[in-house]
Amino acid sequence: MTSINPVTRQIADIHISSSQPTNPRPLGHTKQPSQTNVTKLLTKYAAPNPHAAKPPSRVPSPTKPLASRSKPVDPQPAPSSSKPVLEIGKYDGGLELENEERGTVVEGAAARALALDSSMIQVNPTPKWTLHSFEIGRPLGKGRFGRVYMVRTKPPHTPYILALKTLYKSEIVQEGVEKQLRREIEIQQNLRHPNILRLYGYFHDSKRVFLMLEFAGKGELYKQLSKHGSFSERRSSRYIDQMADALSYLHSKHIIHRDIKPENLLIGINGELKIGDFGWSVHAPGNRRKTLCGTLDYLPPEMVENKAHGAHVDLWALGVLMYEFLIGNPPFEDRRGAKNTYLRIARVELHFPAHVSAEPRDLITKLLQYEPEKRLSLTKVLVHPWIIRYRPKDA
Ligand code: ATP
Ligand code: MG
Questions:
Q1: Counting atoms of ligand 1 from 1, which one is nearest the CA of 263?
Q2: Domain residue extents for the chain
């Protein structure tokens, strides 16, 4: 453990990017509209799961290596035998309304940087998409840079439900996050894991960039956590199992997530967890990064102390996440403010309420180790008795 004084000095020097809110937890989430119809239909037409059985032959296999595909491919279409009638909800006209009021046309170098089009990429190009390729349904939410809608692809594309996320170019430029967005897209479009939200394609018009995302049928995990206060051991264990699996997939590709927290997690149609945001991910083959980013409560000691950090930051965050699932708040949260939170992190001031049983305590404690190398590896997380206990036999 380090002494307090140097930590206090470093805390004073810490710079958190302005694009990350210092109080990331808005209180009082409202429940999402009922998704029962959508749920039923999407069970049939759910997004591809690389671990699922092979789809019908004319459907490109999601497990096939990207480079081996020569022709542009649609997102996983519905089976050919039936003409699906899919509920996408009522469109509120928000895209046009917002587009009149918000954003400006971007020109020059910034425009070139944001001319993002997945039909133009060399490896595995998608069909050419425009806003006219979609029937727009109900609004799913509002993000920092624009709205998200539930949409369905129109003919000649096979009908497929997606979440279409809009981002205003001028606002991206204003925040100076063009590179970060490109990186997020580059990372996400190449990932294939059942617990990582798929990015099927992207396109742009003069003002906006559009991301075609896998539709997470059960919405935000954070809303569920706010609603229930905390999760049962079973539910927490299932989520941590899926997170550990997704993180081990990311780490095997030399991707460090660095921003694990409930707000960045969505829930799929079958209740499975989906990592949704890659804004802070780093593709770091071999090198250890030294930029401070991420969210207050989930920062590991090495980041608080402004030291070099690597993939072990995600193990720490997994421990914080597990604590928050079971107890309802992150372990080092301090209402007096950021400095106190940082101090508690640096001292690993970890306390458990009496109701937390021995097994989850053991796993959390093994993840929340001050020394990055001492944290339990993902391989060992995946065989921890508390994870095995709740894993379905067929998983
Ligand atoms: P940002 O990611 O820009 O920091 P954000 O996470 O608040 O901001 P978005 O990711 O744009 O915002 O999403 C806004 C809302 O839309 C989310 O809170 C969520 O409720 C909903 N949403 C986003 N993506 C999906 C998706 N793929 N499936 C279902 N709902 C989604
Ligand atoms: Mg988001």
A1: 6
A2: 1-16+86-215, 221-390
The CA 358 to ligand 1 mean position distance, Å, reads: 36
Residues with CB under 6 A from ligand 1: 140-145, 148, 163, 165, 197, 213-216, 219-220, 266, 277
pLDDT by residue (tens digit) across 134-169?
A: 999 999 999 889 999 999 999 999 999 999 999 999
CA distances from 223 to 47, 148, 289 (A): 22, 16, 32
| Cβ atoms within 10 Å, residue 362 | 14
* Domain at 221-390: CATH code: 1.10.510.10
User: How many angstroms separate the alpha carbon of residue 270 from the centre of ligand 2?
Assistant: 20
CATH 3.20.20.190 is held by the domain 1-16+86-215 = no
Helix (H) or strand (E) holding 147: strand 147-153
Q: Is the pTM of this model over 0.90?
A: no
Same fold, 1-16+86-215 and 221-390: no
Structure tokens that stand for 142 in this block: 């509002």
Shortest-distance atom of ligand 1 to CA 213: 27
Query: What is the CA(179)–ligand 1 centre distance, in A?
Result: 20
The whole-angstrom separation of Cα 8 and Cα 304 is 10
Q: Side-chain half-sphere of 388: how many Cα atoms within 13 Å?
A: 7
144 annotated to bind ligand: yes
Q: What angle do CA 124, 125, 128 make, to 5 degrees?
A: 160
Altogether, the residues listed in the chain come to a count of 395
Name the residue at shortest CA distance from atom 27 of ligand 1. 215
Measured CA to CA, the distance from residue 124 to residue 287 in angstroms comes to 28
- The C-alpha atoms of residue 215 and residue 210 are separated, in whole angstroms, by 14
Query: In this predicted structure, what is the pLDDT of residue 122?
Result: 84
The span from the first CA to the last CA of the chain, in angstroms, equals: 39
**Cβ atoms within 10 Å, residue 358:** 9
**CA proximity to 87, closest of 146, 21, 42:** 42
- pLDDT for the residue 31: 31
For the record, the structure tokens of 231 come out as: 């999760």
Q: CA-CA-CA-CA torsion for 245, 246, 250, 253, nearest 10 degrees?
A: 60
